[in-house]
Amino acid sequence: MKTPTLTVRVVRKTAEATDIATFELVDAQGDALPPFSAGAHIDVHLPNGLVRQYSLCNDSAETHRYLIGVLRDPASRGGSLAMHDLVNEGDILQISAPKNHFPLAHEARRSLLLAGGIGITPILCMAERLAISGAEFDLHYCTRSPARTAFRNRIRGSAFTSRVHFHFDDGDAAQKLDIAATLDKVEDGTHLYVCGPKGFMNAVLDTARAAGWPEAQLHYEFFAADVGPSDSDESFEVKLASSGRVIKVEKDKTIITALAAAGVEIPFSCEQGVCGTCLTRVLEGVPDHKDNYLTPEEQAANDQLLPCCSRARSPMLVLDL
Hints:
Blueprint: E1 6-17, E2 20-27, E3 41-45, E4 51-55, E5 66-71, H1 79-86, E6 92-95, E7 110-116, H2 120-133, E8 136-143, H3 152-156, E9 164-168, H4 179-182, E10 190-195, H5 198-210, E11 218-220, E12 236-240, E13 246-249, H6 255-261, E14 280-284, E15 287-288, H7 296-301, E16 304-305, E17 311-312, E18 316-319
């Protein structure tokens, strides 16, 4: 089941950095766009039929436009290439209303923002919002090189530029980010936010957890995941709690595709276990979590799962559907 979409026009496509383009979107009829908060993203329906999630990186107080930044990634599943090669100024696109699974914790006394590559998009919006509100924060921005650093001039021209630390892979060792040293002190009231490539995010989160950071102070959002079939996948059954109906999920099918084939549709978007749109309560059974959305504690509770990618460790799952 697809959620309603908004019709927007691409009014500006800009080469922001090497292999990174920004797209400015406005309502096709000139109306105001739905409001959003720092950390929000939109689903973009691409010309090749794919749907991909992109963080909004303009001022969250703006209602006349949305701005997204997209990395051209040859190893992607086709989303970034479609944005770069098929979407041009003047084109009409369908997008979702903004969703925010990566919000700022406004009770934080201090925020530590870590961005890797194109992960700067939600982090930059957060930094600007924190600066406007007068909150304490520091931003570490890691990229391969200055030429691949999106929004560098925007950051350098900002009022909070002194709080931003750039780290380049091709620079000298002294300026590279020491993740362990950055996260070695766990302070009450300090919240950590991280976005970027999966390897970068895992390194940051693993280091933070090893240093004793409470899960409630860790905030992150993955936009891609490896959720392909595994040799260990087996068929299982799901039972719909409302009707008692039992549906078999074959080893090469996802729960969502099995449900759809049986005429049962639930909202979904990314199909990679990163956006949370299809989150479903589990009433009985043990899920086999394959997502990057739930925290380790949430996964261990086994009372919810992402049916777009996760499976079952038990012969049956009873779902709150």
